């Protein structure tokens, strides 16, 4: 018991310290005022792009329910892009830009907690961005969200679960980053794009080809986005997923998340071994 | 006596890219042999030096012991723990500093960086603050404590990196060319600190790699000379130099002369010969290890016969570099 507590304390310290480093990197590039403006304008701008695209394509004929579905999905998908990037990119940053990875790697910390800690700043900033985007949607675009009707426990649980899922994916990609070159950022972007396509971020998964629906159903992010929408909008537009109760969705998400976590762990450890074998841990790749 | 580091037939080979496959030292069928059956034993409390030219395998050995790299075969033990099987346990005992680097989180200050690493190593808050203050004071970095690393000069960054290594007070420290590229004063501060740190606690151990022979001579209890991945000899600097006691070491300076140097190694009475071109001075420095002092006349005659004017000639006490020359037949800097 004492050992478990000691280990938990060490891991929390790693997360806290790495979190401070991540926050310094996210916020220290400019003065606080400019940083605050940037943090507000950036998510609004990306949401407005979606709004314009939506009205151009549909000419507003599909109704508010679908728009709300798309808007909420798109707002929360920011977690996937930012946290995935924030966790997986640490390897490239520490290895090539700061050239500190060898000292981080040989320290007695557990890398998973370090990577998670480094991603915390992105998580916090993304949470702020999501709140701003949702507030803009409700106040300006009249997205039908009743603040009193939101299932807050489910929303909080979903967000926490989502962050865990995305961190697992980030760790998987961090492993791959150990043996890939600096310019392989395209891999992270490609993965985020695949999830955007397959997880029902902007349309129900039912419209996807059947073979792609298998992938959708295997990804915990699909159930996470569905739970987020249910907690905020109170309903689902996906015929496939609406057949499940909230509890059933949570169970399916938990099962797929467990498989993902084990797979991420296996990939990370396997590639870490390969990187040590071939001397890639601290080999600069900025060529 | 307890062993801090022990290796058994440690081997490491690297696959070479096709373009680099021809005619390189240690190259064998597209493979570069970085370490070949390396066996070393470093006692607890010892300041052990690993000497050799660039590419000798020093950094490879340190990387293996620091759990950054796997050996191709063989075993490495750090404080009795296998570096391949239990890297997590090894990491609690060690730290490492590499010289000649420009690393660092530019957005953090010096103090923030040291604090961050103290936390990664689980140092208690009070102890960490005290140790950071001590390091800043001893290494004369107090005025830079609140300076962001991005604004530090290369030398100061290296100094910070050195402090980063010591802030966690490891049981076993790996120093890979820690004074490489540092100016004379900073290098001196670093050497003084290493000595002081070792004296404070007899359980501390340092493995120092360097190609500065004087540095090894000054600091190390024992040294191993390594070349092309092989450990050639291991003893105290005094004993190694004594091994050349019966021989005479002469330094001769001649005007810069690039061609035909190898023939000076064939002069009767010359046991080993090495040279170094000093283009910026317009001179070539020759080093002769002679079987006996009288053989110097053969050398001067040969040089005169070759039309080389002798600028200076001096007899020296054997140094570690002379030991290296005697062992491998070339100096640290020339690649012949």
The gist of it:
Chain A is mostly helical and 287 residues long. Helices cover 77% and strands 0% of the residues of chain A. Chain A has one domain.
What does this molecule look like?
The complex is a heterodimer of chains A (287) and B (336). Chain A contains eleven helices and no strands. Chain A has 287 residues and is mainly alpha-helical. Chain A has one domain (19-277). In chain A, helix 3 crosses helix 9 and helix 5 (111-139) crosses helix 6. The longest helix of chain A is centred in the first third of the chain and has 34 residues, at 64-97. Chain A starts with a helix and ends in a 10-residue tail after the last helix. In chain A, 41% of the residues are buried. The mean pLDDT of chain A is 91. In chain B, helix 3 packs across helix 4 (125-138). Chain B is of the alpha+beta class. In chain B, strand 14 (270-278) and strand 15 (283-290) form a beta hairpin. In chain B, strands 1, 2, 3, 4, 6 and 7 form a six-stranded antiparallel β-sheet that branches. Chain B has a six-stranded mixed β-sheet with strand order 8-9-10-5-11-12, sandwiched between helices. Chain B has helices spanning 58-65, 87-91, 110-120, 125-138, 154-167, 184-200, 213-219, 237-242, 296-305, 320-328; strands spanning 3-15, 27-28, 31-38, 41-43, 47-51, 73-78, 81-82, 94-98, 172-176, 205-210, 222-227, 230-235, 248-255, 270-278, 283-290, 312-316. Chain B has ten helices and 16 strands. Chain B folds into two domains: 3-240, P-loop containing nucleotide triphosphate hydrolases (Rossmann fold), CATH 3.40.50.300; 246-317, Alpha-Beta Plaits (2-Layer Sandwich). The longest helix of chain B is centred in the middle third of the chain and has 17 residues, at 184-200. The radius of gyration of chain B is 22 Å and the shape is globular. The model of chain B has no long low-confidence stretch (mean pLDDT 88). The A-B interface holds A 10, 13-14, 16-17, 20-21, 24-25, 28-29, 98-100, 102-109, 273, 276-277, 279, 281-282 and B 14, 63, 66-70, 88, 91-92, 94-96, 98, 101-108, 112, 116-117, 119-122, 164-165, 168.
């Amino acid at each position: 018991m004492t050992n478990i507590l000691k280990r938990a304390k060490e891991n929390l310290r790693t997360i806290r310290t790495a979190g401070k480093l991540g926050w310094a990197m996210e916020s220290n590039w400019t003065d606080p005022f400019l940083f605050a403006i940037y943090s507000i304008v950036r998510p609004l701008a990306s949401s407005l792009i979606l709004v314009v695209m939506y009205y151009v394509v549909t000419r507003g004929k599909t109704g508010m329910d679908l728009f709300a579905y798309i808007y909420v999905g798109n707002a929360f998908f920011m977690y996937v892009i930012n946290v995935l990037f924030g966790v997986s990119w640490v390897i490239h940053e520490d290895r090539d830009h700061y050239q500190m990875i060898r000292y981080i790697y040989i320290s007695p910390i557990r890398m998973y907690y370090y990577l998670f800690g480094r991603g915390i700043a992105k998580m916090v900033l993304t949470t702020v961005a999501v709140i701003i985007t949702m507030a803009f949607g409700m106040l300006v675009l009249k997205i039908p969200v009743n603040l009193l009707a939101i299932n807050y426990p489910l929303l909080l649980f979903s967000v926490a679960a989502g962050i865990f899922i995305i961190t697992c994916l980030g760790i998987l990609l961090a492993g791959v980053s150990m043996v890939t070159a600096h310019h392989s950022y395209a891999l992270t972007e490609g993965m985020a794009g695949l999830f955007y396509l397959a997880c029902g971020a902007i349309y129900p998964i039912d419209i996807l080809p059947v073979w792609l629906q298998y992938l959708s159903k295997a990804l915990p992010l699909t159930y996470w986005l569905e739970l987020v929408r249910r907690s905020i909008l109170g309903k689902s537009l996906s015929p496939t997923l609406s057949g499940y109760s909230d509890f059933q969705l949570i169970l399916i998400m938990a099962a797929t998340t467990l498989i993902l976590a084990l797979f991420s762990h296996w990939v990370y450890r396997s590639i870490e071994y390969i990187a040590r074998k071939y001397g890639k841990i601290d080999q600069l790749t900025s060529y | 006596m307890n062993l801090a580091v022990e290796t058994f037939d440690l081997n490491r080979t690297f696959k070479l890219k096709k373009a680099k496959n021809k005619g390189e030292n240690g190259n064998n069928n597209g493979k570069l042999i970085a370490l070949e059956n390396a066996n070393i034993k470093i006692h607890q409390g010892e300041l052990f030096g690993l000497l050799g030219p660039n590419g000798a395998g020093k950094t490879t050995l340190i990387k293996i012991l620091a759990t950054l790299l796997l050996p191709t075969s063989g075993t490495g033990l750090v404080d009795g723990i296998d570096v391949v099987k239990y890297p997590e346990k090894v990491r609690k005992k060690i730290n490492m500093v590499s010289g000649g680097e420009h690393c660092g989180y530019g957005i953090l200050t010096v103090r923030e960086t040291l604090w961050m690493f103290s936390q990664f190593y689980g140092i208690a808050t009070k102890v960490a603050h005290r140790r950071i203050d001590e390091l800043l004071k001893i290494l004369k970095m107090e005025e830079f404590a609140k300076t962001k690393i991005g604004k530090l000069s290369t030398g100061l960054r290296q100094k910070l990196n050195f402090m980063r290594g010591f802030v966690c007070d490891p049981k076993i420290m790996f120093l890979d060319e820690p004074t490489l590229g540092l100016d004379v004063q900073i290098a001196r501060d670093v050497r003084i600190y290493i000595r002081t740190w070792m004296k404070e606690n007899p359980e501390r151990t340092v493995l120092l790699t360097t190609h500065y022979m004087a540095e090894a001579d000054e600091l190390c209890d024992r040294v191993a000379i390594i070349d092309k991945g092989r450990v050639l000899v291991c003893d105290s600097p005094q004993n190694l130099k004594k091994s050349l006691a019966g021989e005479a070491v002469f330094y001769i300076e001649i005007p810069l002369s690039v061609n035909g140097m190898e023939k000076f190694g064939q002069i009767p009475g010359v046991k080993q010969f090495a040279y170094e071109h000093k283009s910026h001075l317009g001179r070539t420095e020759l080093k002769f290890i002679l079987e006996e002092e009288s053989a110097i006349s053969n050398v001067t005659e040969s040089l005169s016969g070759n039309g080389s004017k002798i600028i200076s000639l001096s007899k020296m006490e054997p140094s570690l570099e002379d030991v290296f020359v005697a062992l491998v037949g070339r100096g640290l800097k020339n690649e012949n």
